[in-house]
Every structure is written in structure tokens, then in C-alpha cells.
Amino acid sequence: MLEWTLRTIAAATLLVLLVRAIRPPAAPRSAAVGPAARDRLGALAAWTSAPAPESVVVRMDGAPAPDERDWWRALRGAGSVVRWSAAAPLPALAVSVMPVVDPGTRAAVSVRVGAPAGSLVAVVDAGSPAYPDSVRSAARGGGGGSITLPAAQSGVVATLGATRAMASAPDSLIRRPVLVLGRAGWEGKFAIAALEERGWTVRARLTVSPAAEVRAGGDPPPLDTANWSAVVVLDSSITRQGPAIARYVRAGGGLVLAGEAARAPAFAGLLAGQPGARRPGIAGALVTATPRRALTAMPIARLVPDAVPLERREGTGPGTVGEIIVAARRVAAGRVVQAGYLDTWRWRMGGGDAGAAGHRAWWSGLVRAVAYAPEAGAAREPAGEGPGDAPVARLVAALGAAVPWTESAPPVPAGAPGWPAFLLIVLALGGEWLSRRLRGRR
Amino acid sequence: MSEFVFATAQYESGDWDSAPLVPANVIDSLARYTSIDVAPTGVIVPLASEELLRHPFVFLTGHLPVRFSDAERRNLRRFATRGGMLFVDDHNHDIDGAFHKTATEELGRVVAPLVELPNEHPLYRAFFQFADGPPATGHELNGWGDNLVHKHLFCAPAPDRLTVLYSNKDYSSEWGYHPDNKRFLSVDNTKFAVNIIVYALTR
Q1: B54 → closest Cβ in A183, A210, A349
Q2: A26: how many CB neighbours lie within 10 A of its CB?
């Protein structure tokens, strides 16, 4: 009877184990994992073969890698409620890298960083991490900053505290010609020379008389983003092309409104601000470290709300300190830079030995700021284990906003262990064997 | 935008002021044929002064031997390097005269050796069309000077522009409406001056 009972117990236990093995165990209702990345990945690995909890809180000490983030998103897509929390707020860090659209700047990338206002972000070429640079995010206006680095072959990593972001530049950009429009004069001649000497391909239509214009570079093709990277308007004589230029900008083109061009009625809807009265420059300043102070300028009196000042000028007289001379804004898909300087050619001719180079770089910078240059080829993906270009933003996009951190979140409920059942089977079968031996049976 | 100012170069040697009527006639033609903003009067610019760098187009003429001072050479070199264009006309309308020999030597030393300007150059189509190259002057056609019609102008070229344009056709007399020259009554011979200035302003 005893032996029969023990055999029954062993068989029943085996049956229970078999049923448990065949029938999935009931899923735990909720779980919390982390904050160590190893714990989180371990839980994810476990839930590939076992039912995931109905609700999971993922504790983070930093933004997860794209692979892990996608894994959590997949878990969410499979039906679990996945939320995340962090002991301290994760700084919203983002980085983008684009080749510099300036033929005179060889193999450089423009790194733009988004970060909490006033924070200092370390920026480094992933291929040479021993030489970091840094970007101070703007103290106001939502934060952000930019820096130009030599071409980064392996991508750029931005670090703020424990949060890292990584991005790579596309292989190259398509840089198209620049169209210069205006009356024939020294400003046009030297602006064209500056851009050409810097490496831009320039076409020009310069009005010489009501019935004649000089066309440098042949007849220009239609004004659209398939043909032009930017348009430079030199003065207020451009009226007939105004609507076409406005359409071009809204479609993504770049526009530089130089000097009196801002007074042309055709561009009223594109201005970064209202051009003010002319202010004479400071005599003799052309050969100083701030040569543009010597130029007559029309300060931008009132910026439109979405415009950004790019250049303020030291005072040239009472009440002129900090006047905005160059400003930019976006108009639909395009960009506009408004520069209030007049007769910048004087800087090139009379600005000392460095005048020509400075004039070239400044004009090229204006065009670079607005130039439409689509990517050629696909962007290179960051390394798989990299943090991604905007890890916190993408985390929020994937899992929603963070939930409050709780110190005593329930641990992940583990399934009932199998060793007690195994021990019971061993004891039952061992007892049955011992009973038979004591009775002299084999 | 600043207006175009016709500047005449004043240099220490020679007779820089031998064609005082040229500026007014050229300015008149510019205003008549084009919409370029042009100052009603020209200016005289000492070749050695910083003032030279405020006028990217400068006219230089004379009859007598030219020998620039060191300051003039230095300033003229800066002028050419930074994008200025110097138009030099030999008022003697000859090929081997004192002005020609000395001026071309000086310009070769200061800027670059002069070479022939092809008659297909864009200068000849910058505004009016001059299919045969530089228009002949009355003095050339009358057989004065070296008794030649010079078929080419000369230049010191730079990429996509001219730093020096040199003529020994005596446009100084042609554009100065010299009493001996009656051609302007039927042919406006200052049209080529318009081309030179339009070219300077656009290239």
C-alpha cells in the first residue's frame, strides 16, 4: 500500500510538471525592471519565452539604446502596458550632423545640438574621441547650439550628463548654382566675385538698362529648387521676379536679401524684419578687427516673431549699440537671410590685406545659411549599439512620457521553481525502492 | 547702392590730365544708354592714395613717359589684387612711343605682363556689339601717329576678369570730342566706353 502510494505521488508530481510544461503559466499582472541595463535586457530576454506582465514599469538611469527601445516598443505592441520612469529627469538631448554647404570649407560638418537651455554639451567625433569639443546651448529660446567640425567619418557623439546622442552625416549634398539678381554695380560685381572665389557656381542677371541685362553664365533655367541652391537679391529693383522668388522660397529655396532689397514690396512677406533708416559706418573701421562697422547699414528695426538675429553691430553712434544688421527666418520650407549692410564691396577693396578673404567668407556664410542642398545618397546609420540621434525624444515617442519614479515597485514575479517537485519525486521513488528492499523484494 | 563714379588716375610723372573732357562725355553716354546709377561728375584720384581703393574702375591716360613711384606701384598692386580694373589709354595713338613703352613696362612690373585681348572677348559684347573687336578711332583712320589701325587691345588678365585694359588707339582723343574729330557727329564713338564700364561693373 505504501509503495503504491509513493508511486502514485511520483506519477502525480510528474503529471503536474508535465501539465505545467505544456500549459503556459499565468502571466504576472505587473512588474518593474531596471534601472541597470543588464536587468532590463534580462527581463526582456525572459519574456521572449514566458508571458510578459500585463503592465511593466521600466526604470531608466539613461536613455536606452535604439535596440532596447525598439524591444520595449515591440512588447508594448504585443499587448503589455509599458511605461518608463527615471530617478532624475533625462535631459532632452538631440544631435544632427550635416555637411557644410560651403565649397570653401573643405570636409567639414555642421553639428547642431538641442539641449536644455544653458547646458554645456560635449561633442566628439566618434572616430577620435580623445579630442572633444563643446557646445553651449542657448540660454533662452528653447536651447540649442551649433558647431562646425572637420568631417566626422564615424559619426558625432554628443554627451550631456549620462545621456548620449549620436548622428552621422549623409555622404554628400547636392550643391546647385546661386542666382544673383540686381542692378549692375560694384556690389553685384564683388558679391559674385566673392562667391565664385569661394567655390560657388554663380549665375547672374544684372540690369544695365530697362531693355538690357547682363547674364553671367548664360540664360538661367527656371527658378525652382531643382536648379538653384539660393537666390541673392542685391537691391529693390527686382519686382517682376518677386512672385516667382516667393514661390521658390516656400518650396524650400534659399533667399538672401541684401541691402536695399528688403525695401522691395515684392518681398514684404518674406522679410525677417522691417529695414530701418540708414546708419553711416565709422570712418577708418575697415582696417580694424571689426571692419563691417565701417559700412553703411540699415538696421532691422522690428523682427517678425519667428526671425532669429544673426549679427548685431557694435554701436556706430548714440543709440545704435546692438542693432540687428543680419537676421534669418524660415518661410514655409525655405529660408531667408536679410542683411542690412550696404556697399560691402568697400570692405573688400579697402579692408586691408584680410579684407578680401573676410568679404568672401561673409558672403559665402550668408548663402550657406539659406542654401537648399538635398542629400545625395542615403544617410549612414549610426552603429547599432549607439544611442541614436535623439534618444530621449525617441523614447518618449515610443513609450510616452515618463511616469513618477517609485522606489518600492514590485519585483518581477518569477514562476514557481521546479526543484521541490523534483525533490518530491526523488523522495517518493526512493522511499518506494527502500520499502521494497526492506521486504526483500527487488 | 553707391553710384558709379568715373575716376581719373593722377600720377606723379607725365601728363595725367591730358584728356579732361573724357569723363564728362563718358558719364553722359552712360546716363543716356544705361540705367546705371552714375555720378554726374568724375573725380581725380591720386594713384598713391587710399582713395584709389574707393573706385574699382580708374582711367589713366597721358602722352609722356610714365614712371610710377614706389607708393603708386604698391597701391596699384593692391588695387588690382582686390578686384579693381585700370583702363589705360595711350594718348599718343602709337605703338612705340614714350608713353606706350614706359606704361606697358610699368604695368608689367606692377600687375602682370600685358597680352593681346582676343577680339572675341566678352568685353566687346558687354552692352553694345563690337563684332570686329575694338572700334577704330579717328586718329587711326586718318593715318596719324604710327599710321596703324591697332587690331587688338591689351590686358592683364585675371580669372574671369581684367585687371588692366590697355589701349594704344587714343580713345582719349576720340572720347574727348577733340575739335579735329568730327566723327561723333554721325557715330557715337563713346559707345565702346559704355561697354568697358558695363564690363567692369559686371565681371
Answers
A1: A349
A2: 9
B73 contacts B109 by C-beta, under 8 angstroms: yes
* CA distance readout (Å), A404 to A24, A31, A58, A161: 32, 15, 11, 20
Q: CB-CB: which of A209, A234, A349 is closest to B53?
A: A349
Verdict on whether the full-model pTM lies above 0.90: no
| Contact between A312 and A323 (Cβ < 8 Å) | yes
Give me the amino acid identity at B10: Q
Q: Is the pLDDT of residue A128 over 70?
A: no
Looking at the predicted complex, does its ipTM rise above 0.85?
yes
The residue that leads in pLDDT, A312 or A90, is A312
Cβ–Cβ of A186/B37 closer than 8 Å?
Answer: no
Residue A185: partners with Cβ closer than 8 Å, 6 or more residues away: A206, A234, A235, B1, B2, B4, B36, B37, B201
Nearest to A212 among B127, B161, B200 (CB): B127
- The count of C-alpha atoms lying within 13 angstroms of the C-alpha of A242, restricted to the half-sphere facing its C-beta, is 17
User: What is the predicted pLDDT for the residue at B25?
Assistant: 92
The answer to whether A83 and A403 are in contact (CB under 8 A) is yes
**B68 vs B65: CA distance, rounded Å:** 10
Report how far residue B137's alpha carbon sits from residue A45's, in angstroms, rounded to the nearest whole number. 94
Nearest CA of chain A to the CA of B104: how many Å? Answer: 24
Grid coordinates given for B61: 591716360
DSSP alpha helices (H): ranges in A128-215? 186-198
In angstroms, the CA A374 to CA A361 distance is 22
Residues 6 or more apart in contact with residue B136 via CB below 8 angstroms: B149, B169
| CA angle at B177 for the pair B175 and B180, rounded to the nearest 5° | 125
Beta-strand ranges (E) seen in A40-177 are: 55-60, 81-86, 94-99, 108-114, 120-125, 133-136, 145-150, 156-160, 163-167, 170-173
Q: With DSSP H G I counted as helix, E B as strand and the rest as coil, what are the percentages for chain A, rounded to 5?
A: 30, 30, 40
For residues A104 and A107, give the distance between their C-alpha atoms in angstroms, rounded to a whole number: 9
Using an 8 Å Cβ cutoff, are B16 and B48 in contact?
Answer: no
* d(C-alpha B176, C-alpha B23), whole Å: 8
